[in-house]
Amino acid sequence: MTDYLAAAIAMLGPAENRYADPAAWDRLHTELDIRLPTDYQTLVDAYAPIQLNGHLYLHHPATEHWNLGDWIRGTVRAWSEVSWDKLDPDEDPRLLFGLSELSFGTRNGLWPIASTDRGETLFLVAADDTAPWILIEDGEGGWARFDMSFAEWLYRYLIGEDMAGPNTSAFYPGPVQLCRLPMTADERPEPWRGPDRGM
Domain of life here (predicted)? Predict the structure, then answer.
Protein backbone atom coordinates (compact mmCIF):
# COMPACT_ATOMS: atom_id res chain seq x y z
CA MET A 1 0.00 0.00 0.00
CA THR A 2 1.32 3.44 -0.97
CA ASP A 3 2.40 5.81 1.79
CA TYR A 4 0.94 8.93 0.14
CA LEU A 5 2.40 11.35 2.67
CA ALA A 6 5.93 10.06 2.00
CA ALA A 7 5.25 9.97 -1.75
CA ALA A 8 4.04 13.59 -1.80
CA ILE A 9 7.04 14.76 0.23
CA ALA A 10 9.38 12.86 -2.10
CA MET A 11 7.96 14.85 -5.05
CA LEU A 12 8.09 18.20 -3.22
CA GLY A 13 11.57 17.81 -1.75
CA PRO A 14 12.91 17.99 1.79
CA ALA A 15 10.52 19.50 4.33
CA GLU A 16 11.53 22.99 5.36
CA ASN A 17 9.25 23.39 8.40
CA ARG A 18 9.99 27.14 8.43
CA TYR A 19 6.89 28.00 10.45
CA ALA A 20 6.13 24.70 12.21
CA ASP A 21 4.53 25.56 15.55
CA PRO A 22 2.39 23.00 17.44
CA ALA A 23 0.92 25.78 19.59
CA ALA A 24 -0.45 27.53 16.47
CA TRP A 25 -2.24 24.31 15.46
CA ASP A 26 -3.60 23.90 19.00
CA ARG A 27 -4.99 27.45 18.95
CA LEU A 28 -6.55 26.90 15.52
CA HIS A 29 -8.14 23.58 16.53
CA THR A 30 -9.54 25.13 19.71
CA GLU A 31 -10.96 28.06 17.76
CA LEU A 32 -12.48 25.87 15.03
CA ASP A 33 -13.61 23.13 17.42
CA ILE A 34 -12.36 20.44 15.03
CA ARG A 35 -8.99 18.79 14.43
CA LEU A 36 -7.54 19.00 10.95
CA PRO A 37 -5.98 15.75 9.73
CA THR A 38 -2.41 14.95 10.72
CA ASP A 39 -1.21 14.45 7.13
CA TYR A 40 -2.59 17.88 6.19
CA GLN A 41 -0.81 19.48 9.17
CA THR A 42 2.44 17.73 8.25
CA LEU A 43 2.35 19.00 4.65
CA VAL A 44 1.35 22.53 5.66
CA ASP A 45 4.12 22.68 8.26
CA ALA A 46 6.64 21.29 5.77
CA TYR A 47 6.02 23.82 2.97
CA ALA A 48 3.36 26.51 3.57
CA PRO A 49 2.68 29.27 2.85
CA ILE A 50 3.18 28.10 -0.71
CA GLN A 51 1.81 27.84 -4.22
CA LEU A 52 2.25 24.45 -5.90
CA ASN A 53 2.46 23.92 -9.67
CA GLY A 54 1.29 27.46 -10.34
CA HIS A 55 -2.23 26.90 -9.00
CA LEU A 56 -2.69 25.28 -5.56
CA TYR A 57 -2.37 27.46 -2.44
CA LEU A 58 -1.65 26.24 1.07
CA HIS A 59 -1.79 28.65 4.03
CA HIS A 60 -0.18 28.25 7.48
CA PRO A 61 -1.67 28.85 10.96
CA ALA A 62 1.52 30.39 12.43
CA THR A 63 2.07 33.20 9.92
CA GLU A 64 0.60 36.68 9.86
CA HIS A 65 0.35 36.79 6.06
CA TRP A 66 -1.26 33.83 4.28
CA ASN A 67 -2.67 32.82 7.66
CA LEU A 68 -4.69 29.60 7.57
CA GLY A 69 -7.12 30.59 10.33
CA ASP A 70 -7.90 33.94 8.71
CA TRP A 71 -8.36 32.28 5.31
CA ILE A 72 -10.64 29.57 6.72
CA ARG A 73 -12.80 32.13 8.54
CA GLY A 74 -13.08 34.39 5.48
CA THR A 75 -13.86 31.47 3.17
CA VAL A 76 -16.47 30.06 5.57
CA ARG A 77 -18.13 33.50 5.73
CA ALA A 78 -18.21 33.83 1.94
CA TRP A 79 -19.61 30.34 1.34
CA SER A 80 -22.15 30.72 4.16
CA GLU A 81 -23.66 33.72 2.35
CA VAL A 82 -24.46 31.69 -0.79
CA SER A 83 -28.11 30.79 -1.29
CA TRP A 84 -28.39 27.03 -1.77
CA ASP A 85 -32.17 26.86 -2.20
CA LYS A 86 -32.40 27.00 -6.00
CA LEU A 87 -29.71 24.59 -7.17
CA ASP A 88 -30.30 22.14 -9.99
CA PRO A 89 -30.28 18.57 -8.65
CA ASP A 90 -27.08 17.79 -10.58
CA GLU A 91 -25.32 20.72 -8.86
CA ASP A 92 -26.60 20.20 -5.32
CA PRO A 93 -23.90 18.57 -3.18
CA ARG A 94 -26.55 17.56 -0.64
CA LEU A 95 -28.23 15.34 -3.22
CA LEU A 96 -25.03 14.27 -4.96
CA PHE A 97 -23.21 13.14 -1.82
CA GLY A 98 -25.93 12.45 0.75
CA LEU A 99 -25.27 15.44 2.97
CA SER A 100 -28.03 16.08 5.50
CA GLU A 101 -27.29 19.80 5.32
CA LEU A 102 -24.96 22.18 3.55
CA SER A 103 -23.16 24.25 6.14
CA PHE A 104 -19.69 25.71 6.34
CA GLY A 105 -17.50 25.88 9.41
CA THR A 106 -19.83 23.78 11.55
CA ARG A 107 -19.09 20.55 13.42
CA ASN A 108 -20.56 18.38 10.64
CA GLY A 109 -20.11 20.90 7.86
CA LEU A 110 -17.54 21.68 5.20
CA TRP A 111 -14.18 23.14 6.17
CA PRO A 112 -12.07 24.87 3.49
CA ILE A 113 -8.48 23.62 3.55
CA ALA A 114 -6.97 24.74 0.22
CA SER A 115 -7.81 26.56 -3.00
CA THR A 116 -6.50 27.23 -6.47
CA ASP A 117 -6.23 30.30 -8.66
CA ARG A 118 -8.61 28.49 -11.04
CA GLY A 119 -11.48 28.98 -8.58
CA GLU A 120 -11.43 25.50 -7.04
CA THR A 121 -11.99 25.14 -3.29
CA LEU A 122 -11.12 21.99 -1.33
CA PHE A 123 -13.31 21.23 1.66
CA LEU A 124 -12.70 18.71 4.41
CA VAL A 125 -15.90 16.96 5.43
CA ALA A 126 -15.26 15.94 9.01
CA ALA A 127 -18.56 14.50 10.19
CA ASP A 128 -18.25 12.84 13.60
CA ASP A 129 -19.60 9.49 12.48
CA THR A 130 -17.44 9.03 9.36
CA ALA A 131 -13.82 9.19 8.32
CA PRO A 132 -12.94 12.62 6.88
CA TRP A 133 -13.23 12.99 3.12
CA ILE A 134 -12.68 15.77 0.59
CA LEU A 135 -15.33 17.63 -1.37
CA ILE A 136 -14.23 20.02 -4.12
CA GLU A 137 -16.15 22.78 -5.86
CA ASP A 138 -14.63 23.49 -9.26
CA GLY A 139 -15.36 27.23 -9.34
CA GLU A 140 -18.27 26.80 -11.74
CA GLY A 141 -20.83 24.99 -9.60
CA GLY A 142 -19.56 21.45 -10.16
CA TRP A 143 -18.70 19.24 -7.19
CA ALA A 144 -16.50 16.16 -6.81
CA ARG A 145 -16.03 13.83 -3.84
CA PHE A 146 -12.78 12.06 -2.96
CA ASP A 147 -12.77 9.44 -0.21
CA MET A 148 -9.09 9.75 0.58
CA SER A 149 -6.63 11.58 2.75
CA PHE A 150 -5.33 15.02 1.83
CA ALA A 151 -1.88 13.49 1.21
CA GLU A 152 -3.33 11.04 -1.31
CA TRP A 153 -5.36 13.81 -2.95
CA LEU A 154 -2.24 16.01 -3.24
CA TYR A 155 -0.14 13.18 -4.63
CA ARG A 156 -2.74 12.41 -7.29
CA TYR A 157 -3.12 16.12 -8.08
CA LEU A 158 0.63 16.47 -8.60
CA ILE A 159 0.85 13.48 -10.94
CA GLY A 160 -1.88 14.96 -13.12
CA GLU A 161 -5.10 13.16 -12.24
CA ASP A 162 -8.45 14.97 -12.47
CA MET A 163 -8.73 15.92 -8.81
CA ALA A 164 -11.50 18.54 -8.95
CA GLY A 165 -13.85 16.71 -11.29
CA PRO A 166 -13.73 15.76 -14.98
CA ASN A 167 -11.09 17.50 -17.12
CA THR A 168 -9.50 19.38 -14.21
CA SER A 169 -5.96 18.01 -14.44
CA ALA A 170 -3.19 20.51 -13.74
CA PHE A 171 -0.21 18.36 -14.73
CA TYR A 172 3.19 19.78 -15.53
CA PRO A 173 5.97 17.38 -16.56
CA GLY A 174 9.27 17.50 -14.75
CA PRO A 175 9.85 18.49 -11.15
CA VAL A 176 7.01 20.02 -9.13
CA GLN A 177 7.00 23.82 -9.25
CA LEU A 178 6.99 25.39 -5.78
CA CYS A 179 6.78 29.07 -4.93
CA ARG A 180 7.22 30.58 -1.46
CA LEU A 181 4.64 33.29 -0.93
CA PRO A 182 5.86 36.75 0.15
CA MET A 183 5.54 37.45 3.85
CA THR A 184 6.11 41.23 3.72
CA ALA A 185 5.39 44.01 1.24
CA ASP A 186 9.11 44.08 0.33
CA GLU A 187 9.40 40.38 -0.46
CA ARG A 188 8.76 38.78 -3.81
CA PRO A 189 7.58 35.23 -4.54
CA GLU A 190 10.47 32.74 -4.47
CA PRO A 191 10.05 29.98 -7.06
CA TRP A 192 12.04 26.75 -7.07
CA ARG A 193 11.59 23.18 -8.21
CA GLY A 194 11.33 19.90 -6.38
CA PRO A 195 13.57 16.93 -7.14
CA ASP A 196 13.49 15.10 -10.45
CA ARG A 197 10.58 12.67 -10.49
CA GLY A 198 11.04 11.02 -13.87
CA MET A 199 7.88 12.53 -15.37
Answer: Bacteria
Question: Model's pTM, two decimal places?
Answer: 0.94
Peptide bond into 93 cis (omega under 30): no
CA distance 156 to 150: 10
**Every domain of the chain and the residues it spans:** 48-81+101-179
User: What's the CA gap between 127 and 91, in Å, rounded?
Assistant: 21
Buried b (16+ CB within 10 A) or exposed e, 77-108: eebeeeeeeebeeeebbeebeebeebebbeee
Q: Is 165 left (phi over 0), alpha (psi -120 to 50) or beta?
A: left
Q: Dump pLDDT digits (tens) for 47-64.
A: 999 999 999 999 999 999
Strand partners, 133: 125
Contact 20, 45 (CB under 8 A): yes
